[in-house]
Each structure stands twice: as structure tokens, then as C-alpha cells.
């Protein structure tokens, strides 16, 4: 009885090992779709190229997957015997051959690069390729992107932008949904931000009055003069102090380029609490000297 059991276990064991060996032959677990592999091109073909990636059989890269740019001579982008990285886009077929792509690997790298550029608040030059009612389509390093009309500087003649190169910032970079939305206004703001610094006296016009403060337009950028930063004295109603379009000078006390925020203060220009309310014209006319004094005072304290 025991010997029969042993034979049965041996049979089961040898069967499962054979099964496992066949499974290994049928599928190479090293090569999976989405994986990046290194290999050498050893044969060029009118339809593509054969690549040695260390498998039991060669891999194949179709001609239209050789590069993101248009290829006339495939040997330019796939030189023989040179080690390159490839992305597996199709797992092994019946003959054990995997399908590779350089084009999709380049696209993957571009998405990663653009995502990093967005994080770093960088700008990029793009070419306008088309127009629709919502804005313009653009080419961003080989990828298709979009600039909404509201984020263009020229909004009336969109057709006239076709073929032009624009400098833009990033609104959305989403590789999974292939959403690439950019803004020309954001890039303009970024360039203007680089000219600003904390402690600087800036001139602008009142563009909005809210219960919590006053919005000031500084060469197309919106800055906030918070109610607590207007005067050392309490203010009940800002609409009794300011008017839309009124010229105003103020000192920058905080900058956040990532969020596009500029915080201002006129309080630091006062010689006594309430001067901004009682004698604003005098304070504005001598704002440069007062700002210089505030800067010196700040550097002494630090």
C-alpha cells in the first residue's frame, strides 16, 4: 500500500515538473509588455529590424516603431550592433518573438520630462498646428497638446497663430489620459515673476475691492493688498478708501510663483498708524524713499 502511494506521489511529482518545464518553454517570464530591455540590432529589414535581447529567439521592431520622427533610412535610428533600450509592446507570439518599440519609449521619456518641467514651473517652446473653437492645438516635442483660448495672449485671430512658435507654461500633464494642456499667459506671468523680489516697490492699479483686501494689477499680474497690510489702523470699509482703476504703489512682502500669488503692503510705508487713510497722496508721492527706509530697517532686523 505504501509503495503504491510512493509511486503515485512520484508520478504526480514528475508530471508537475514536466508541466512546469513546458510552461517555461512556452512563455519567457523575463519579457513582459511594458518592460524596457536592452538589445542589439543584428539585421535590418524593409519592414523593420531584428534585435537580440538575449531571448531564445530574436525580437522584432516594426519600421513605424523605430522613432518618433519620420524615418527615411532606418539604419540612422537603428544602427547595427549598437546597444539600445527598447520598450516591449507585444509579448511573445507562437514563435517566441516579442515586438519592440523605440518610438513609444521616446514618448514615455517625453511625458516624464514634461511632468518634471511642470513641477519645476518651467516653460517650453511649442509650434501651433491647428485651431478649434476652444483654442489651438500644438506640437510639444512630438506630442499633441492644447492651449485653451482663455490662456492665449492673442485670442481674436487664432488662425493667424498656425505655424507660429509660442512660449508656454504647463496647466496639466497627464500621461494616463494623454492630456497635455498648456498656457501662454502662465509663461508670460512666469517671465514677469522673475523680475520681482520681496521688498521691491511696485506700481499698479486697483482692479478689485473685496471685504478682505484690494486686488492690484501689476503689468497684467494680479497682486493682493490684504486689509491687514493696508494700514496699522483698523479699516471698516475698503470701498470708502479705494476706487477701481486708482493708481497705487506698494511693497512686495511675499511671492509664490507656483500659485501665482503676490502679496503687497502699504502698511510698511506708513510713518504713523492711519497715515495711509489720512494722507494717502503724500504717502504715495514719497513711496520710493519710504520703501528704501523699510528695506534698510528689514535688513537691520535680520
Tell me what you see in this structure:
By secondary structure, the chain is of the alpha+beta class. It has three domains: 36-101, OB fold (Dihydrolipoamide Acetyltransferase, E2P), CATH 2.40.50.140; 122-190, Nucleic acid-binding proteins (OB fold (Dihydrolipoamide Acetyltransferase, E2P), Beta Barrel); 195-301, Nucleic acid-binding proteins (OB fold (Dihydrolipoamide Acetyltransferase, E2P)). It contains seven helices and 15 strands. It has helices at 2-26, 74-77, 103-119, 184-193, 275-278, 280-285, 287-301; strands at 36-45, 48-52, 59-62, 83-90, 99-101, 124-132, 135-140, 143-148, 165-174, 179-183, 201-210, 213-218, 221-226, 247-256, 261-265. The strands form three sheets. It has a five-stranded antiparallel β-sheet with strand order 3-2-1-4-5. It has a five-stranded antiparallel β-sheet with strand order 8-7-6-9-10. A five-stranded mixed β-barrel has the order 11-12-13-15-14. A hairpin with a 2-residue loop joins strand 7 (135-140) and strand 8. The protein is elongated. The model is unreliable at 1-13 (pLDDT under 50).
